[in-house]
Amino acid sequence: MTTDSTAIVWFRRDLRVADHPALSEALVRFARVACLFVLDDRLIDGRSRSPRRLAFLRDSLLALSADLDARGGALVVRRGKPDEVVLAFARELRAGAVLVSRDYTPYARRRDARVAAALGRFDIEFVAMPGLLVAEPEDITNQQGRGFSIFGAFLRRWTNLPLRPIVAAPEFISSPTGSGRLVASDLDCLSPLPTTFAPVEGGEGAARRRLEQWVEGPFARYAMDRDRLDIAGTSGLSQDLHFGLLSPTTVVHRTAAAERFIEEVAWRDFYLHLAWHSPSVLRGPYRGALAGLPWVNDSDALSAWKSGQTGYPVVDAAMRQLVATGWMHNRARMIVASFLAKHLLIDYREGERFFMEHLVDGDVAVNNGGWQWAGSTGAAAQPYFRIFNPVLQGQRFDPDGLFVRYWVPEVSDMPARFVHAPWTAPLTIQHAARCVVGKDYPAPIVPHDLATARARAVYAASYQNGAMARR
């Protein structure tokens, strides 16, 4: 430790004090540590802006501020361009270094390069530490030094890497005098939205409670219940990992007994590694042979999908849940994404953008990876000829229709054998259930068999043409 020195820990997607390598490193090397969060205009007004996600961020920043206060530290929040704000703050405090948790998207890399260059002009060190992922992109590469595009190969390497040791939360943080501290009005631009559904509670403490409640409850049945839409069988930790309220290493240590769950954490690393090694994946199809897919421009169908009016109850229930709560079960995400990209042949990027507008856990790389998986355009994606049948998906993963009855009340009185395909019910039953298809609830906007045949033909032709063009 330098006896008379100050460092800045610039928080981004790491809003916690436990298992925070950058914070721990700063406390070891420097006498005083100032904590900073920058309200970047790209975060607040950018194309991936989500009011619900910003509200969760606000709560998490307030909780982080309280956690730092309890340890003698303080969180400073300033708005502006990161390279200007971080440099100005570092010069105010005469800081010798700025430490961060490393980030991996193209925007994050450009941002950090600009900040590092600005600091370097004044001999201020910029230090990037792990903390966002379980494994770093350089740790899992093929013989050519590139990232894996096959998840199975990635998973074998990922599973065999030693886990980073957990770093305990600091007991005390010595802050430089005059650095300031967060007041609630600093976050007015992140004001929460009025909603009829209770928002997910932000902050590290709430995230840790969610982790423990899940481990002590549904965790034991995860492998059996993880795809059920009518059961709270998943962890509910996606927003906590996205904002770094929990480190992924902590989660893996705590849930090591559940191999299937650990695999889901690995998928998160996989998609972020992919964004690091192949940043163009965030702009278009990873599979070049499908870059020329002739997407259909159908604004009415897209609007029906967004508003949960497709006539397929499981699709509509999932979309209504997303808009109302900012969350959607992963199985439901696969169903609605497959429906948009294959049943409707609408560009997966339309759905990708809509998800980012609503998801509390919206992560650019992970969201893109999921959409390209469902649309068969991505790395490790499902085959293009595999197309989810929304009726069968509903029957399998919501067998009694509890999920669709809640979110699509139009079908709430339908007998179970018709609840996922109400148009197949005799008219007498539709009247008895107060769900006459075409009047009380829409008929399917596209027949499944016709949509499936069309999608397979279009994908096959595009794949063949693209492959030939690339020879």
> What is the helical fraction, as a range of percent?
40-55%
What structural category arises from helix and sheet content? alpha/beta
Report the top-level CATH class of the largest domain.
Mainly Alpha
Low-confidence stretches: none
* Distance between the ends: 58 Å
CATH superfamily of the largest domain: DNA Cyclobutane Dipyrimidine Photolyase, subunit A, domain 3
Helix/strand order: EHEHHEHEHEHHHHHHHHHHHHHHH
CATH architecture term of the largest domain:
Orthogonal Bundle
Number of domains: 3
Query: Shape from CA axes?
Result: globular
Q: Radius of gyration, rounded?
A: 24 Å
Strand content: 5-15%
Average per-residue pLDDT, rounded, comes to 94
Main sheet attributes: strand count, strand direction, barrel closure: 5 strands, parallel
Descriptive account of the structure:
Helices cover 46% and strands 7% of the residues. The chain is α/β, with parallel strands linked by helices. It has a five-stranded parallel sheet with strand order 3-2-1-4-5, with helices on both faces. α11 (259-277) crosses α16. The protein is globular. The model has no long low-confidence stretch (mean pLDDT 94).
Summarize the structure.
This protein is an alpha/beta fold. The chain is 46% helix and 7% strand. It has 20 helices and 5 strands.
Secondary-structure map:
Elements: E1 2-11, H1 21-29, E2 30-39, H2 41-45, H3 51-69, E3 75-79, H4 82-93, E4 97-101, H5 106-120, E5 125-129, H6 151-160, H7 204-215, H8 222-225, H9 238-242, H10 248-254, H11 259-277, H12 299-307, H13 313-325, H14 330-343, H15 348-358, H16 364-374, H17 390-397, H18 402-407, H19 427-432, H20 448-469
Helix pairs in contact: 4-5, 6-11, 11-16, 13-14, 14-16, 15-16
